Amino acid sequence: MPKEALPTQQFIEIEAIQNDAVILKNGGLRKILMVSGVNFDLKSEEEQQLIIYAYQGFLNSLNFSLQQFIHSRKLNIENYLNKLEQVQNKETNELLKNQIGEYREFIKSLISENAIMNKTFFVVVPYDPIQISEAAAGAAQKIFGLLKKKPPAILEQSEPEKQKQLEHNLDQLNQRVDLIISGLTQIGLRAAPLNREEIIELFYNLYNPEAIEKKELEIAKQT
User: Pfam families this protein is in (predicted)?
Assistant: First the structure.
């Protein structure tokens, strides 16, 4: 009999999305920031050097790692085309109405013949709480087993304790996020964290590269 296909969730390291943060299966937390871009080539040589030195100083000030990535997608202009159609239908001047219609058809033709890509810049801020390894836990269990009690690090946590720990970890993560946003601002870049809906939208697009974006991320309008 053919083997049953494994569920997609088994290959994804995400446990949940809570408080606008990605919770990984290993207990780690991630927040995703959308960052504005800068046209580096249009800057003068002096401005380029200032940006490089500022960015270098920003990276050297961090005591944790960062992930940066560029997400390229086919631009979705359905909303724009729909707005043009609405304007065309409301226009009473026949000449303007025809011009709007011709322009709309030109845009549709341009998009169909040439894929226009939209690039978005992201920074992933991590926080990984200290986890006791299985080997260390086993060794600790043997030692504490002689004393007939469990080591504190591997005691079972109640739900309120787990929630309290999660809130503490989120607070630590948010402090890092504030630090990153402040550092990027000094370089002249604007950054804002994605909310839950935007994170889901981003991962949908990442795991469905053949599709155009369903809609523009709301956060993009802020950065």
Answer: TraC-like (PF26593)
